[in-house]
Amino acid sequence: MIKWIATAVAGVVIGVLGWVAWPAPDVTAPTALDVQAPTGTVRGEGSLPRTSDEMLGQLLMIGIPGTTVNSGTRALLEEIQPGGVILFKRNITSPTQVKALIDALQASVQTPLFIAVDQEGGQVTRLPFLKQTAPQSAINTVEEATRVGEARAKELRALGITMNFSPVLDVVTKKTSYLYPRTFGLVGPEKTGELGAALVRASGQAGVLSVAKHYPSYGDIALDPHQKEVILRATTATRDAALLPFRRVIDADPDAPLMLAHIIIPEVDALPATRSPKQVAQVRALGAKGVLVTDDLEMVSAGVPADQAAEEAILSGVDLAMVAHSPALQRAALARLRQAQQEGRLPAATVDAALERILRAKKRVGLLQP
What we know:
Layout: E1 7-9, E2 12-16, H1 52-57, E3 60-63, H2 71-80, E4 84-87, H3 95-107, E5 114-117, E6 119-121, E7 124-125, H4 142-159, E8 163-164, H5 188-205, E9 209-210, E10 212-215, E11 229-233, H6 236-252, E12 258-260, E13 263-264, H7 277-285, E14 292-294, H8 306-316, E15 321-323, H9 327-342, H10 348-364
Parallel strand pairs: 2-11, 3-4, 3-15, 4-5, 5-8, 8-9, 10-12, 11-13, 12-14
Antiparallel strand pairs: 1-2, 6-7
Helix pairs in contact: 4-5, 5-6, 8-9
């Protein structure tokens, strides 16, 4: 129960974190940001997960097929009772359709869902009909980041979306880097963190959790991590520089959620961050108290089958394991967590801690009563 970078070698992306260390200025004590609770129906204590399976389902973020909730999707949601659903272009046609879809998704579960999307702006824009689609590279000041974050979040919240996988905090040093078009540009770690923290703050105050990514930073990789394993070599100095933007977001709001990527840093661990207890412990040591979510565990760079990756992610201290495409793999992930719990590999304390952070975040954006 709840207690309340880069070259390809044999299919592997190998990179080097190629920026210099950035001095970390003194930071005042972090202060949690106020998040405006959205208007609309807010569910009470009766909507909390009740059974062991419902609790485990809260630890999964899944994707669905199609633009409506058909009988197959409804059955999937009722079975898994996931913590959230991520929407892709395959799920989106118009504002009216998206609202209807989200209403149907929420009606299919016991505990309100995070409805998530990758609405970074620019190259990654899942909802092209929204007004605020500026790319991160067009954001140059804290004031601009604040305006973009607030405007984008208000549009998302009006549709029923409560989580946005943005901003991209990977620091790049060359325009040929794979992620360059999606970043703040060649501005360095400090500026990236400053702009990212402002965007996260503004989004949260407008009722949408902004999930900074991709911890611990892809840096200057040149190839697609969806298709290749990612191994980054890092010195202490370059690693500190890569983590600085995430530190700035955490310093501004310790409860801000973060996305972990499938990045192996051999100097830290032989496992990718999404499955690495050492890397998760390091992000917690930075002061992160919010929800940690994996990138899609169906990506090649996850390194193992999605169900195994989901178990290892939760065991490592991650809160939400994302299985974004295959219903079969989503069901397998829940079954794997269930088996791990039954066989004693998944401690109750680990589930409790993850569930507490997830439900606290849902209360923060008004999905549950505070």
